[in-house]
From TrEMBL:
Pathway the protein acts in: Glycolipid biosynthesis; glycosylphosphatidylinositol-anchor biosynthesis
Family statement drawn from the similarity comment of this UniProt entry: Belongs to the PIGG/PIGN/PIGO family. PIGO subfamily.
Keywords noted in UniProt: Endoplasmic reticulum, Glycoprotein, GPI-anchor biosynthesis, Membrane, Transferase, Transmembrane, Transmembrane helix
Organism, as annotated: Crotalaria pallida (Smooth rattlebox)
Segments crossing the lipid bilayer: 20-38, 499-518, 538-558, 592-609, 629-660, 672-691, 711-732, 766-784, 804-824, 845-869, 889-907
UniProt cross-references to Pfam families, sorted A to Z: Phosphodiest
Chief localisation class: endoplasmic reticulum
Protein name (record): GPI ethanolamine phosphate transferase 3
InterPro entries documented for this protein: Alkaline_phosphatase_core_sf (IPR017850), Phosphodiest/P_Trfase (IPR002591), PIG-O_N (IPR037675), PIGO/GPI13 (IPR039524)
Keyword Manganese in annotation: no
Keyword Lipoprotein: no
Length: 958
């Protein structure tokens, strides 16, 4: 009992300091591991300059021209004077290509008719490309990759909320350094990446995914007047409507179709303006139009990973000056199909990696220093009409184009080799010796061809096509071999994983596990000292079985298949624990109803998880205006439609009635009683909100603007007021309640406070999930209480890890039951705007976090004390109860830490896996956020729950 007094003498900090130390260790471990795992490649502070070309084996653009007056100050002979780039964010390839290119026609196909018609009517002047992006496929990384010509990495996802300026050499920087004037309008990510590069810019906020029109309308407002102005060389217009429509409504939705039709009209007007101004001496005589997507999207509107739907986008390019008649078939990648109107449409393919260097070559500016792409021959050929007047009389237009293309590839290859040499010398983790040798060999072979045969033929004007063409084709193939070798090696080995930092972070995580395990064992030792009963021993069959379940779940994280099926795995383990509990109930002949009920609940959770997985399978039936899966099941039945509206409201009223009954309990006194009454009021407001928002009832209890906007804000305000009231209640010693009753009262008040916001954000599925979590928690408390020794109620107080493990598994099931999964399309962005139309980062991030983790982390963490308080029929004393609660929070955090540690091991082992950015990295991000949120809430809950209440007089005297 001496130890008991010493702990109690330190106050509540004697129980909770370990949780704060654990939080610090986890923050440090995650910080170090993340810097090692999500580390970008080394960015070199070097830039290309016009004078650099004199160090290359290639000849200048003036040497390739018959007239020195046409010489360019850049690296290549400029092919176009002006460039119009229209970025349609998240344009899928099948938005642009005719439906005949696909096995099945979908509603969203054949909407951008103007691009298909231009490609079929002017096949030598307009081309459609299937453009392949490199993952990660978020807008920030793709814009960075498109302008630098390099391979971005996953870590920049975190910068999507506030993109830093690009410090590497890039296409936009080269434009500005070489006297080109750039005008930008649309997505404000451009001004964040290039804050001082634009002659004029019209940025619009891009992160409000509910807003489909503000950015697009801003682009339209400025685009058409700017096309008639002369004070620019490059115009960039970035539309966002399709991306936002995908996130909120999905690809197969009416807003998506409307957006595509709007874009078709806009592009038709743009092409008309450029064609009307393309005559000799006109403003757009030598303008190139490029319409492109930065990435694709899944049917759910997701992007970020590396699936075909996400990486396949489109590029349409159209020249308004006659290009050469053809590109040699060896360098053409087109495939042709007849569209629905019987017109022949040809589509080529290219890598987005090649965009920056190809545009630089067309404009005649130096290539970005770190670009590893190659000049695309078909896109480069669209600008070759500029050179027709310079062509030798002995060569055709196409032959003369090949001269220029071969020289441009020489410069391209020299620039890439220069960059790789500098990178290998500067980066701590570059290419291996074998890779360097392979690259050097391919470049040496190409350079040998160039210096010993090709360059002499190019400089000799007397050579005819029959002599020059075979040599040029061999030279171009040699450069292709070198550049494709570089791109292949870069994609396979580019990301630099700092294994030292990753190992250090993993080591600190292991230290935190040892620290938590020591705290658990020490608390158990205290139980043994304060209990003369042999049942104080912690090593029981239940403990062994809990560790067995923990081991199975942890090991499942090492497999990509089990990560995809994480919800089913957690539900299977939860059901297994329920069967074990049922066996114990049958043996002891008690708690049988609770055991059977818990198994039925687990079966219901499995069904709901399956429904949630059908959303993940990208079925458009779940991507409607509803935030709930309930309204989408058997939606064809009118009776079900009304039931799906009414049942959630009835369940919410039932929950409100249950809370009202709680207020009559002896432990529900001021201020906790008023907190719970506030929640009942919030529930009624939510019902009014749903009735007003529904189209089926036709009842307007309040004006629609108030129902949709102000009622959610009132619910948030009530929750905030409840929090302040509970904080105020902490300032007073409520010694009129014993310790156990005080714990129950505070837990009930805290859960009711959070529940209103969580239910509101979850939509009409919220009451159902809340009711399931309430029933599941009740069953777990009753089953845990079933182990109570009727003869020695005070001495049998060690809970052990088995019920905590069940609590953790049930919380995981609730995450998947509420329609979430560990991927970025598992986030319900619409929930962040309930009650608000305008975007504010911190507010929307908080609401999105509450919606995502409300049922799976916030409510389970604050509800854990009920598992302790309901264990005992009598007051066992403040120190015993608080020691046990501290131990249980430590066990809960230990389980979460084990899961995080195995996730770290998984991404370390699978860091070169094909699915690393599509599956393992998102799982890592979700688990990191879940771990830190769990730790923070445990620390806050400890401060809230510990330190008040009184012991029974009998216990005090003893």
């Amino acid at each position: 009992m001496a130890e008991s007094g010493s702990v109690g003498g330190r106050g509540k900090w004697g129980y909770i300091w370990r949780h704060w130390v654990t939080l610090f260790l986890h923050l440090l471990a995650i910080l170090l591991f993340t810097r090692g795992f999500l580390l970008t490649r080394t960015e070199l502070p070097f830039y290309s300059h016009t004078s650099d070309l004199s160090h290359s084996p290639c000849f200048s653009s003036s040497s390739s021209s018959s007239s020195s007056s046409n010489a360019s100050s850049g690296w290549t002979e400029p092919a176009v004077n002006r460039l119009v780039i229209i970025v349609l964010d998240a344009i899928r390839f099948d938005f642009v290509a005719p439906s005949t290119f696909f096995p099945e026609t979908k509603a969203w196909m054949n909407k951008l008719e103007v691009l298909k018609n231009a490609a079929s009517t002017h096949p030598s002047s307009a081309k459609i490309f299937k453009a392949i992006a490199d993952p990660p496929t978020t807008s920030l990384q793709r814009l960075k990759g498109l302008t630098t010509g390099g391979l971005p990495t996953f870590v920049d996802v975190g910068n999507s909320f506030g993109a830093p300026a690009i410090v590497e050499d890039n296409f936009i920087n080269q434009l500005v350094q070489n006297g080109k004037k750039v005008v930008m309008m649309g997505d404000d990510t451009w001004t964040q990446l290039f804050p001082h590069h634009f002659e004029r810019s019209y940025p619009y906020p891009s992160f409000n995914v509910k807003d489909l029109h503000t950015v697009d309308n801003g682009c339209i407002e400025h685009l058409f007047p700017t096309l008639y102005e002369e004070d620019w060389d490059v115009l960039i217009a970035h539309f966002l409507g399709v991306d936002h429509a995908g996130h909120i409504f999905g690809v197969d939705s009416t807003p998506m179709i409307e957006k595509l039709e709007q874009y078709n009209n806009i592009l038709e007007r743009v092409i008309e303006v450029l064609e009307n101004q393309s005559g000799p001496g006109s403003l757009h005589e030598n303008t190139l139009l490029v319409v492109m997507g930065d990435h694709g999207q899944t049917l759910n509107g997701d992007h970020g990973g590396g699936s075909a739907e996400e990486v396949e986008t489109a590029i349409f390019a159209m020249s308004f000056k006659k290009p050469p008649s053809f590109v040699p078939p060896e360098f053409d990648t087109y495939s042709c199909q007849m569209d629905l109107n019987g017109k022949n449409v040809c589509i080529s393919s290219m890598q987005q990696l090649d965009f920056a260097v190809t545009m630089s070559a067309l404009l005649g500016i130096p290539f970005p220093y770190g670009s590893i792409g190659h000049i695309n021959p078909e896109l480069y050929a669209l600008g070759a009409g500029r050179w027709n007047s310079d062509a030798s009389q002995k060569l055709s237009e196409s032959d003369f184009w090949m001269q220029n293309y071969a020289n441009a590839l020489c410069i391209n290859s020299w620039q890439v080799k220069r960059y790789l040499d500098a990178y290998s010398a500067s980066s701590a983790v570059g290419f291996s010796h074998d890779d360097i040798s392979r690259i050097a060999s391919a470049y040496a072979q190409a350079e040998n061809y160039w210096s010993h045969s090709t360059i002499e033929l190019l400089l000799d004007r007397n050579n005819g096509s029959d002599t020059l063409m075979p040599v040029l084709k061999r030279q171009i193939n040699a450069y292709f071999n070198f550049l494709s070798t570089v791109a292949e090696l870069a994609r396979s080995k580019w990301t630099e994983f700092d294994l030292n930092l990753m190992g250090t972070g993993t080591g600190i995580m292991v230290i935190s596990l040892i620290f938590q395990l020591h705290a658990i064992l020490r608390a158990n030792k205290q139980h043994g000292l304060t209990s003369s009963s042999p049942r104080g021993s912690w090593i029981t069959p239940g403990t062994t079985f809990a560790l067995f379940l923990l081991g199975i779940r942890a090991c499942s994280f090492l497999s990509n298949s089990y990560i995809l099926e994480e919800g089913k795995v957690a539900n299977f383990l939860l059901s297994t624990s329920g069967i074990v509990a049922l066996r114990q109930s049958l043996i002891k002949d008690k708690r049988l109803i609770e055991s059977v009920g818990f198994l039925f609940l687990s079966t219901f959770c499995r069904f709901v998880i399956e429904v949630g997985l059908s959303k993940q399978a990208a079925t458009s039936a779940f991507m409607k205006d509803y935030t709930s899966w309930i309204l989408n099941i058997a939606s064809a039945l009118p009776v079900w439609d009304y039931a799906a509206e009414v049942v959630p409201m009835l369940v919410l009223i039932l929950l409100a009635f249950w809370l009202y009954k709680v207020t009559s309990r002896s432990f529900c006194v001021c201020p906790w009683k008023y907190v719970i009454l506030g929640t009942i009021l919030s529930y009624m407001l939510i019902v009014v909100h749903w009735i007003t928002d529904s189209e089926r009832f036709g009842v307007a209890l309040v004006p629609e603007s108030i129902g949709r906007t102000y009622i959610p804000r009132i619910v948030y305000a009530i929750a905030l007021g409840q929090m302040l009231l509970m904080a105020f209640g902490q300032l007073f010693k409520d010694n009129y309640l014993d310790c156990k009753s005080n714990l129950v009262a505070k837990a009930s008040a805290m859960l009711s406070t959070w529940s209103s916001t969580v239910i509101l954000l979850s939509g009409k599925q919220g009451p159902m999930i809340a009711f399931a979590s309430l029933v599941g928690g009740y069953f777990l408390m009753r089953l845990n209480n079933g182990e109570e020794d009727a003869k020695e109620p005070r001495r049998s107080f060690s809970i052990g890890p088995f019920p905590v493990m069940q609590w953790s598994l049930f919380a995981t099931c609730l995450f998947f039951c509420s329609g979430h999964w560990c991927a970025f399309d598992g986030l319900r962005y619409g929930a962040a705007f309930i009650g608000f139309e305008e975007f504010m980062l911190v507010r929307q991030a908080m609401l999105l976090t509450i919606d995502t983790f409300g049922f799976s982390i916030i409510l389970p963490v604050f509800g854990l004390p009920l598992l302790v308080a309901t264990k005992h029929q009598t007051n066992v004393g403040k120190h015993v109860l608080f020691t046990q609660l501290s131990q249980m929070y430590t066990i809960y955090g230990f389980i979460t830490s084990i899961m995080m540690t195995f996730t770290i091991l998984c991404v370390t082992i699978q860091r070169r896996h094909l699915m690393v950015w599509g599956l393992f990295a998102p799982k890592f991000v979700f688990d990191v956020f879940g771990l830190i949120l769990t730790d923070v809430l445990i620390c806050l809950a400890s401060v809230y729950y510990f330190g008040q209440g009184k012991d029974d007089p009998e216990l005090k005297s003893s």
